[in-house]
Amino acid sequence: MIEFWRELMTLDLSALTGPMPTEMVPLEFERLDAETQRARALQFFQRMRTRRSVRQFSSEPVPFELIELAIRTAGTAPSGANQQPWRFIVVGDPELKRQIRLAAEAEERENYERRFPAEWKQVLEPLGTDWHKEFLEIAPYLIVVFRIDYEESPAAFPDGTAGRRKHYYVMESVGIAVGLLLASLHQAGLATLTHTPNPMKFLNRILGRPKNEKPYLIIPVGYPAEGASVPRLEKKPLEEIMQVFE
Ligand code: IYR
Questions:
Q1: What distance in Å separates the CA atoms of residue 213 and residue 23, rounded to the nearest whole number?
Q2: For 201-210, what is the mean pLDDT?
């Protein structure tokens, strides 16, 4: 009899009852008056429209706390089933930055000299980019973003069973998180670049990341070099990017 009760107490009954529903809590929501709404949205727009991708960095150090705050901000992003399929690796170590630069340049040299089709080269022309990526060594920090397509662990599932748990809407989720990351860094007065050497598999090797993590972007962060320049680019006007049905 005692055996029976002991057994019952150790049984995982969730297989019979299904997972516990998530606890619901009241939404924290600040209702703004119309004037504040407009002022805040306008101020954010005016700030964000000044962001430019920078390719000439200064080696001047930046406060690490700003990097941390940007990653915390990125981590607030919505994600498929709240799976938060991202990892942000912060690289300040000069030796690792050097390895990343050398590996990226080797791939990019192949791209520019052999692999890029003429059509791609044509659209890159106005940006004036080439295979040289010294910014990967000069910028004080590289934030290397990985997307996590699935989780493989002894307790992959909420009920603790082992296996491979697929993540959903990974590209969308990580894209949103990176948008918030870039906005935070710009808001903090730092310059960034979204850099995508191709292929990027070398980042797993250099940074020791497991194979369920795929490199998504490298984001050099720092202050612009003195006299840095950027291509004159236009953003599409509102009428071209928005259509309204009312
Ligand atoms: N990744 C390469 C090429 C490149 C591709 C696009 I699309 C850009 O907007 C900019 C560059 C490089 O970094 O040079």
A1: 30
A2: 98
